[in-house]
Amino acid sequence: MNPDLVIVTTAILVSSASALVGTFLVLRRMALLCDAISHAVLPGIVLAYWLSGGARATLPALLGAAAAGLVTVSLVEWLTRTGRVKNDAAIGIVFPALFSLGVLAVSLYFRQVHLDLDAVLYGEIAYAPLNTLWLWGLELPESWLVMGLLTLLNLLFVLLFYKELKLSTFDAGLAASLGFAPGVLHYALMALVSFTAVGAFQSVGAILIVAFLIIPPATAYLLTRRLPTMLLLAVGVGVVASLGGYALAIWLDASIAGMMATVAGVCFALAFLFSPLEGFLTTRLRRRRQRLEVAARLLVAHLAHHPQPVSEQEIMAEFGWHPRFLRQAREKALQAGWLEARREGLWPTSRGRALGQGPSVP
Amino acid sequence: MLELFTDYTLRNVALGSALLGVVGGALGTFAMLRRQSLLGDVLAHAALPGICLAFLLTGAKAPLVLLVGGGLAGWLAAWLALAVLRHTRLPEDSALGVMLSSFFGFGIALLTFIQQRDNANQAGLDQYIFGQAATIVAADVANFALLAGMALALLGLFYKEFKLTTFDPGYAQSLGLPVRGLGTLLTSLVVLAVMVGLQTVGVVLMAAMLIAPAAAARQWTDRLGVMLALSALFGALAGVSGALISASRENLPTGPLVVLAVSAILLVSLFFAPQRGLVWDWARTRQNRKRVHLERLLLDALALLQHGPLTPQALAQHRRESLAAATRHLEALEAQGWVRPGPQGYRLTPAGQQKALELQMALRSQPSVFPSP
Fold first, then answer.
1. What secondary structure, in 3-state letters, does chain B show?
2. In chain B, where are the structural domains located?
3. Fewest Cβ atoms closer than 10 Å to its Cβ: which of A156, A207, B51, B266?
4. Domain enclosing residue A349, as ranges
């Protein structure tokens, strides 16, 4: 099978599965909790590896990681509930401790075996085409099976519990009072995040999975106010990051997963700058346009009140404008047809005069 | 222990870890009180591309150059996260997460890019991910001391201002203090602390050195000055003990051990710190529960005595419990000195009568939950 195809489709599956659950993480303000989970997955994997007798099986690793994820969430919640430590500090305390345990165990007992830290950290998606298994007489990459199942699972979860997820995300109190058990949903979501983190860990590593979980949904968050659109956009951004990242990684001969995270970051930067809703540059441009429009109307109104043409100096003194700003405002008014240039100077047109009459103008 | 003073490597490692603990503990205190604990995590992760870029640009592996590069990248990530927060509605944790993961991903990409170019010089650049304390030499310790000294000196210089902006930013603003500037300065100082930690614990685990000592110190005191000192002390303690433990055997990485040491200190503080310790909390709850239980028993006994003799049978019927339990309860009351066995069942002692009266008064003076008829 074509290795490029396998890698790219694996990446797309990883990013889709992540974007589906990541959207709810971002909306529920649990983005950094999933960072903690993705780190804390390491001791779970090590434990499962040790319990299963050193075989690098996928299922024990999945279960161990999911358990570690739930332990992380429970520990963070317990620490927060004691009231001795704030939530963010609790996150920052739990995951380094668990991760340290994992690193220690790896360096003590698994030095020689095939569980090296590099693979845990940034994964090796380039090996995806090499790990294959036979199914229905077809040789399929293992990553397709794992990530495909996970994507399907996440998709089913979001589709089946869409209403419940939406309600408990935006109004947890109402959801609880209606009997939707937000707690159960919360832990189900956390379990899925852990599953996704470990399923993707072989491909993109324990830390970069955060990039796939958070960045595409955060990018989509900047672009829309609707949940279904946000889900679709998040998946879309994930796909773009997968494709672009792979191309760049091949070109520069660098880590594929790292490049995908980088491209996702660039997508976020673009959305931040150019989002039609609240993009940084978009907002500045809109403000500039509005300021010019107000200035142009002010200019027309001022001229309409004077029987004789008014000199530029007088206008600038009146409004405290810079000559360049006056020029821009005049340009705008001329374009809008509020002013016309006559021989003796600028003169308000009938439309321009109508502006001053109030809101009757369409 | 003695090796600490004789073994060259161990002394450097311990000194470096201790310096990291002191500066991380001191600055973490402010970061935690300002609810910016995880900003340190972002700063640390984001340092990785800076280290790689510094290496790519200068081609040298001078630790100080790499640390400065890492610091600059971390600072940039923090600044970007704050810009995103100021200009969009994105939740704070998402903004931090985006910066953390995209910078770290870029760092990993750069790292592999450097490794693929087969540059023999690069060996060891990835030590900054988990730290490799064993590579710390005397020159590194000098660098750490310089960075930590700078951070601590600035912290001491602006201590009053930092304290005010942390606890009452509104008042600080009204006094004309540059609150935002001071926030930026504190973040920059945290960057210095991260730079000290890159070589020892690495970018991934650095967050613990900023958060855990401060969280531990918080349990022991309510005063900022004491908390700062304790936090620095805990950090140093964790640093030295982590270094010592890792030297005791082969294949024990220092960074994770330092982090585990500081986590252990935090756990002990959480459970056993005077006043705030969870163990005392549980003990208090148990004691209260026991007291309330006994007081209820006394009131039940009083109610029974108004109608007849106080016998185990009567108490058992009144409280709908077994005879054995009722006997045990009466014995408990007797142990308190509130009742005494007599010929016709138990009687209240004077102390018991006094206590029962107090309880009834207390109950009466409580505003009733139910509306009076």
1. CCHHHHCHHHHHHHHHHHHHHHHHHHHHHHHHHCCCHHHHHHHHHHHHHHHHHHHHHHCCCCHHHHHHHHHHHHHHHHHHHHHHHHHCCCCHHHHHHHHHHHHHHHHHHHHHHHHHCCCHHHCCCCHHHHCCHHHCCHHHHHHHHHHHHHHHHHHHHCHHHHHHHHHCHHHHHHCCCCHHHHHHHHHHHHHHHHHHHHCCCHHHHHHHHHHHHHHHHHHHCCCHHHHHHHHHHHHHHHHHHHHHHHHHCCCCCHHHHHHHHHHHHHHHHHHHCCCCCHHHHHHHHHHHHHHHHHHHHHHHHHHHHCCCCECHHHHHHHHCCCHHHHHHHHHHHHHHCCEEEECCEEEECHHHHHHHHHHHHHHHHCCCCCCCC
2. 3-274, 279-364
3. A156
4. 283-355
